[in-house]
Amino acid sequence: MPEDADSKQTPKFTFNRYVWILTAGAITRVVELPGGHVFERTKVWLNTHPTMRAPVRNIYSASGVLGFYEGFGWNLAPAMVKTGVRWANVSAADGLVSALVPVEYKRTKAGGIAAVSSLITVGLFCPFERMKVRAMTWDRLTSQEALGLWRGWRPMFVKQATISAVFNLTYTEFLKWAIQYRAPLDLETRHLAVISAASGAVCAAVTTPIGMVKDQMQMRDGIKERRMFRAAMELYRQYGLSTMFRALPVKVLRSVWYFSVTTAVMHKLKALPNFMNPAAQQDSDSTKEQSTRSVTPTKTK
After folding, report:
1. Tell me, what's the pLDDT at 140?
2. Is residue 1 part of a domain?
3. How confident is the model at residue 34 (pLDDT cuts 50, 70, 90)?
4. Residue 17: CB partners within 8 Å, gap ≥ 6?
5. pLDDT digits (tens, 9 = 90+) for 246-256
6. Residue 6 falls within a domain, yes or no?
7. Residue 153 lies in a domain
8. Residues 208, 255: contact at Cβ < 8 Å?
9. Could you list the residue range(s) of the whole structural domain that residue 98 is in?
């Protein structure tokens, strides 16, 4: 019967599934952040000191090894929630669009919805992001600046939305190439982590200048312009395009570390979105095709 066929469609995105992905995202961030924060600290230093060089030496000479973990407290707890919310929203969008979009358009289905979901994440966590940047630059917010906790939300949103869209697109394309050489069920965790790392490197190359605009807008002695595009143009005129990309190597390392570790841990916890998991994707496609055939009326002579 049609009702039975619809009820057997996989995967079903339930509330329990959403809660589990929230939890898995928090666990993943705890595993990833101790190593990733070092790259993030170095990246912020490069973005907030555009005329200075030798970031590692300067950070170490100022505060020793602990200097690389400035702002860690402002990063850990919010990042646990943010990572869980981000991956859960992507999975929810993936499940929603799976039920609405034909199988042949499945490769590009969740990019736009995942980008829109970034707005929710930015709205909730922009104040923590600004506090983290201020802590990393050995600065503290004054009482007069308390109302400006959402300063820099526009470049943060553009950055997160771009990462979501670019990652979804490049990951699905890299996954298609990998499936040409290995069967979907033969792709192991390490293969998915490498694919995710390659997609993360592309995201880093695209969003590095946006990251500098965000960090400059969120620090005290940074750029005073409040409009994102004008701030970007002022930074370009003042420092040049090469300076806006000076944090690219560190940003690539940060993204490769984040996406590879996150994908590996989420895959082990069985919490990856289905568009990233070829086994679940194959099951979803076959089930949807069977459901379509089961509800097609047969012609009678």
Report:
1. 65
2. no
3. very high
4. 11, 91
5. 999 999 999 99
6. no
7. yes
8. no
9. 12-284
